[in-house]
# Entry
Amino acid sequence: MPPARNPQTLSPLLALHGVGKTFPSGTQALADLDFEVRAGEFLSLLGPSGCGKSTALRIIAGLSAPSQGRVDWPTEGMAADKTSRIGFVFQEPTLMPWARVFDNVALPLVLKSVAGETITHRVSAVLERVGLAKFAKAFPRELSGGMRMRVSIARALVTEPQLLLMDEPFAALDEITRFNLNNDLLQLWQASATTVIFVTHSVFESVYLSNRILVVSSPPGRISAELAIEAAYSRDQNFRTSAEYAAYCRHASTALADAMADGEPAEDRS
Amino acid sequence: MKPTRTRQERREQERRGQERRDRALRIALPVVVLALVFLIWEAFVRINHIPPYVLPDPGLILRTLMDDWELLSQSLVVTLATTVEGFLLAAIGGVGLALLFNQSRLVEYSLYPYAVILQVTPIVAIAPLLLIYLPQPLAVLACAWIVAFFPVLANTTLGLHSVDRNLSDLFALYGASRRQILWHLKLPSALPYILGGLQIAGGLSLIGAVVAEIAAGSAGAGSGLAYRIAESGYRLNIPRMFAALLLLSVAGIAIFYALSFVNHLALRRWHESALEREA
# Structure
């Protein structure tokens, strides 16, 4: 792992100040959320279902406006042109069923009216990176769940975003597929300068992937703990079975249990 | 291991045979029923010596169809032309109006109630009025259009509202323009609904054309199949009435299957409705 990825020394990419969100129905999803995201880090938001972590992600993406507080973007470029610098991966693959894999991945570029030749080139390159080069002409329904998620990730990466937002992307997949995608995601992240904010309710997944974990309490969501995962990024099957990993997981589980004890019992909604 | 596999293969073979038999039955049974009905009909007419101006037997109907083919086929062409024109106008009008409604809420609020009124007022009641103010062919076309356009409008409207929320968010995230959202997201999402609407519209367009022709026929003008039915009724030419009716049914069935086929072609690669279930 390049030394520049040490989260303590990275410059801030964005900061949430007192962000709260109350839905028109009166449900308060978030209250007074304060945290900073540093450029290049892999940050996980860990919390129970329905704690508002997805809402936080949507607010960062600009898909939803905060009821209180604000999101600051210290770097000039991000503030000016967020749409081409943010990638979003939903919990579902969210592919267009009528379009082939190639066209699904090309979508962000097509919407930006990028020249056809550049699109072909970049889509082919990103499909190669996620290991789906052979499936460019397939329709989503012809792919397995894991492959669909890869397409979804390829689509998010095709714009070479500075910030990748992932909303429980692997929650619906089986464990073997999830492990594989975890490894692939780490590889993709290390090969780029992308910052990742990863929403999950899995302690194990967040520890395996992140530089840093923010534990979100429920509900309304607020940050109740912060954990740095300082293990080196040779994270593989050996890391999964190491004592170090187990210790971090225990630590994160305790923090999560505390967070849930603070708030009301979690409801099953996300 | 081996016996299990053979058993599995045998089971697979049995299943396929079952499917083939099932498909054959689905075609054969209606044909058998039709043949039986014709036989009973024929027997009933002959045994009771029912005169053809009361109830012609199926054989006579078929003979009349062949004898009057020149006249009836010309009428068929007229009715089909009206139906197709009415259908195309309904498709354009229905989809166009739905798009307009989708883009502007004010237009939707202003016009939607009238679209509903047009739909709920029985076409039989509107047709004679239209025949007063419009030349006969145009009036018939208008009737075909009126009955056919509403399902297209309603289905397209529903389809345009049935966009996957996350996909919609994704388009917003990438700063898609209204036109891009319409073209790349809403229209493809709505396509299965639009095609469903068109399938209903095809049959309704024929009904609209027939109703208007009957109304026109009672005024003594027209040349379509339904007009032939009305005319034959006045002349007590009952076999020709049945022959024309038979042609109308066949036309309706042909329209239905043609549209089903288009539907299948457009959706077969991706939509649930067109996918074959893998057992």
Remarks:
- The two ends of chain A are 33 Å apart (CA to CA).
- Chain A has nine helices and nine strands.
- Residues 95-160 of chain A form one domain.
- Chain A has two domains: 9-85+164-270, 95-160.
